[in-house]
Every structure is written in C-alpha cells, then in structure tokens.
Write a structure and sequence with these properties.
Largest sheet: 5 strands, mixed
CATH class of the domain at 52-121: Alpha Beta
Strand order of the largest sheet: 3-2-1-4-5
Order of helices and strands: HEEEHEHE
Number of strands: 5
Structural class: alpha/beta
Shape: elongated
Oligomer: single chain
Helix content: 25-40%
Radius of gyration: 21 Å
Strand content: 15-25%
Distance between the termini: 73 Å
Number of helices: 3
CATH architecture of the domain at 52-121: 2-Layer Sandwich
CATH topology of the domain at 52-121: Nucleotidyltransferase, domain 5
Length: 128
C-alpha cells in the first residue's frame, strides 16, 4: 500500500489570501471617517494610549467618534455608553485647525459632562 500524500499548497494559498485580505482590511479600519488637519504645537506628547475615545471635528463642523460619523445631538448618548468601558476615561479631541472654537468647546463640555477623567486636544509637531 502506498503512502498517501497530503498536498498543502492549496491550504497555504488560502491562508495567504486570507492574510492579505485581513491586512488590507485592517488598514482601512484605521482611516478616520473625517479628514482632519491637526494644528501644530511645540508640545506634542507621543503617547500610545490604546484605552481612549477619539472625537473628531472637521473644519466644516462634522463630528465623529472613533471613526463613526455622527450628528452633534448624538454625541452625549454615544459617549455616555462608551466612556464606562474605558478604564482611563481619556477622551482625545482631534479637531481640524480651521474648526471653530465654538464646536471645540461644545465637544469638551459634553465630554466632561458625561464623566471623562481627562480631555486632551491632539496636535502635531511642526514640520522642519
């Protein structure tokens, strides 16, 4: 009786195809739903906080929470649901440098109202 051989080539092809699909999908998940041009500052803190909620504010007044575009009236409800799940209570606001102060202050006050322990505004270092 001959030794049966198992051909692993199709299995490896499928695994590699799945790996490529998940790698490409992962990159798309990291893209914010709003295009934000963050202002420059000399005091940019490079922290890799994974336990956070990110609020986005575009220059034309659109809002997003963790890459999900929402209306302003829904921010308080969504934040109050997500914030208890975040141990650090950190809320980072990524506002476009051309966004109005009014909308930025509204985001900050809503975050504090629902119980954020710390609210920070994201900046980037000046390009040299």
């Amino acid at each position: 009786m001959a030794n049966p051989k198992i051909n692993l080539t199709p299995l490896i092809d499928i695994c590699m195809s799945l790996l490529m699909v998940f790698m490409a999908g992962g990159v798309l998940l990291l893209e914010p739903s709003l295009k934000i041009n963050v202002p420059e500052a000399l005091t940019n803190e490079e922290k890799d906080e994974t336990d956070k909620i990110v609020l986005y504010l575009s220059k034309d007044g659109h809002f997003a929470i963790d890459d999900m575009t929402i209306q302003y009236q829904d921010i308080e409800t969504l934040l109050s649901k997500k914030l208890p799940l975040i141990a650090s209570g950190l809320v980072i606001i990524k506002a476009d440098k051309e966004a109005t102060h009014f909308n930025l202050l509204r985001l900050m006050s809503v975050a504090k109202k629902v119980g954020a322990n710390k609210v920070t505004i994201a900046t980037e270092l000046p390009k040299t």
